[in-house]
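quick one before i forget lol
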Amino acid sequence: MTEELLEKAKEFEGRTLSHMSTSDRVAASREAKSLILSINEIYKETKDSNLMDVMKSLTEKKRKIEKRLKGTPLV
């Protein structure tokens, strides 16, 4: 199960963010959240530092996606 999650996480990190529609970005953000939460459940039991590194990189990519979704605030 852990290997499966890590494989999905690696595939997610390899995707490009360019030329995504808004709905694609929303779906990607939700997928990232799901992966992070799933990996976190395993991390709670094992305390494996590799899992923490994967969660950090997924969170960084998720933040970039969400930043693009929110856009710049109009003043």
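fyi DSSP finds three helices and no strands in the chain.
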